[in-house]
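Appendix C: a fully annotated inverse folding record. The material below is reproduced so that readers can follow the format used throughout the book. The structure is listed first as tokens, followed by the designed sequence.
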């Protein structure tokens, strides 16, 4: 059976609020296998590089500041149809619009502090996973 991978970050707001365990539980209960994971903190340069696609948007500086204010959990997840299934699990960017039972509905506090990142395509999942993990760190 074919499987694929996606990348996620538990963002500083969710780490600060003690939601790591709850979010990881939701991820594993949804059938994802964690193939790489670490607690780390993005530098300003890391965040600017990771979110470079947004560098012309008005919220870019705020995003970089938010993502560097504290530690994150970076993880690569594996499951058939991983990217699409994970996007459904995390819910809409705005927690007010997120479906019941999604990570953001349960743990996010605002559009800006929305608890988790999830890759939006297989290509970006590979790029984002490689940004955080060497091949020997993935199982």
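Designed amino acids, in order:
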């Amino acid at each position: 059976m074919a499987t694929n991978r996606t990348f996620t970050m538990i963002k500083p707001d969710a780490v600060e609020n003690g939601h790591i365990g709850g979010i990881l539980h939701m991820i594993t209960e949804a059938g994802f296998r964690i193939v790489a994971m670490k607690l780390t903190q993005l530098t300003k340069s890391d965040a600017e590089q990771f979110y470079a696609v947004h560098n012309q948007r008005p919220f870019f500086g705020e995003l970089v500041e938010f993502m560097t204010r504290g530690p994150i959990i970076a993880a690569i997840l594996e499951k058939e149809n991983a990217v699409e299934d994970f996007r459904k699990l995390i819910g809409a960017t705005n927690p007010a619009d997120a479906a019941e039972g999604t990570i953001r509905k349960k743990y996010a506090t605002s559009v800006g502090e929305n608890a988790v990142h999830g890759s939006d395509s297989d290509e970006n999942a590979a790029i984002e996973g490689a940004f955080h993990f060497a091949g020997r760190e993935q199982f």
